[in-house]
Amino acid sequence: MRFNTRLLHDAQPPDELTGAVNVPIYLSSTFAQSAPNRHKGYVYSRSANPTRTVLERSLAALEGGATGLAFASGLGALTTLLEHFPTGTRIVADQDLYGGTWRLFEHHRRTFGIVIDYVDATQIEATGAELRRSPAAMFYVESPTNPLLRLVDLKAAARAAHRAKALLVVDNTFASPAIQRPLELGADVVLHSTTKYLGGHSDVIGGALIAREAALGERLAWLQNAVGAVPSPVDSFLVLRGLHTLGIRMQAHSESARAVCEVLEASSAVSAVHFPGSSHHPQRALARRQMALPGGMVSADLTGGGRAARRLLRGLHLFTLAESLGGVESLVDHPASMTHASVPRREREAHGVTDGLVRFSCGIEDPADLADEVRTALRGV
Ligand SMILES: *Cc1c(COP(=O)(O)O)cnc(C)c1O
């Protein structure tokens, strides 16, 4: 079956008891046992909940992994993953990271004695050398990256990680499995903030880990229960409901983003546009190889810096100024003062997150309306 069919049918049979075509929201913290330890597979909802199970099986099937695990947030998923590694573990991570991921890595470095070395993962030769310099347990990347939409060659990254005996973990939040499936390219674990495209409607906070191999999946499932950062049955249902339309949403998001990118590229107020679908993107060949669609995220650097960025933001109304991304409605973000404010200025600017950078999460409104609004707002910059 093809992906858009699997979104609706993989691991989601009608409810056995009632025939309900959607899994019921099982709002129960605990489950009756007929005798001590005799039960129907469910004991306590931190360990497993039937609504969450359907979501988890669906996530595993869509990413092509042995095990899917749902969490209360993307960072809850990352916290649980980090619990896998003992004190002194060395992690190599791409320098271009979601701000909250960077903050959590730094916390683990300072507090729990984890060693974190940052690399430019677009430079895969140098990255491979850094991975082999001293033993590393994990190589952690996002692709496309946030907010600069740089791509990491995931096949090459998996080879580099495995040569160094490290796990490759890919944050697939920006692409979603409708666009890119890292486990098929050799990654060991995929992480999601399901808050974004998988949920897709800006109404739930959630996260996920999907492991390619069952052995690692079991270990992470053990940690999921031990740490306890699980989503509620209602939240699990909302993410599942979002998944059903993921395919057509990603197509619409990609069309919107392409329209916005064209307007930005045509404007003299803009010095650089970052979009994997652009013919000017330095990694457009890799984008075509690795991604089925360019996705809905575009960022642009304004020639006039922070003041121009603020003026542009004031001219946007269909794009709501807000953190987050991946919902059906368009959002716009000023990374330097919002999503990436926790990264020190020097570090931020060294990686290209300047005061003039604006990040667009292009929704599924009519692309022409989004393009018109950005064109008009740019005239006022
Ligand atoms: C939002 C986000 C996260 C964190 O997820 P939460 O659900 O907010 O905890 C991690 N990675 C990326 C790329 C994100 O966009």
Q: List the ligand species.
A: pyridoxal-5'-phosphate
Please identify the top-level CATH class of the largest domain: Alpha Beta
Q: What is the CA-CA span between the terminal residues?
A: 48 Å
What's the name of the CATH homologous superfamily of the largest domain?
A: Type I PLP-dependent aspartate aminotransferase-like (Major domain)
Q: In terms of structural class, how would the helical and strand content be classed?
A: alpha/beta
Mean pLDDT: 96
Features:
seven-stranded mixed β-sheet, Aspartate Aminotransferase, domain 2, about 40% helix, alpha/beta, about 375 residues
How does this structure look, described?
The protein is α/β, with parallel strands linked by helices and 381 residues long. It folds into 2 domains: 3-243, Type I PLP-dependent aspartate aminotransferase-like (Major domain) (Aspartate Aminotransferase, domain 2), CATH 3.40.640; 246-379, Aspartate Aminotransferase, domain 1. It has 13 helices and 12 strands. The chain has helices at 3-9, 50-63, 74-82, 99-112, 124-133, 154-163, 214-227, 233-244, 246-265, 284-290, 305-314, 345-350, 367-379, and strands at 67-71, 90-94, 115-119, 138-142, 167-171, 189-193, 207-211, 270-274, 297-302, 320-321, 331-333, 357-361. Strands 1-7-6-5-4-2-3 form a 7-stranded mixed beta sheet, sandwiched between helices. The chain has a 5-stranded mixed beta sheet with strand order 8-9-12-11-10. Helix 2 (50-63) packs parallel to helix 8 (233-244). The protein is globular and about 75 Å long. The termini are far apart. 51% of the residues are buried. Residues 73-75, 98, 100-101, 142, 146, 171, 173-174, 193, 195-196, 205, 207 line the site of pyridoxal-5'-phosphate.
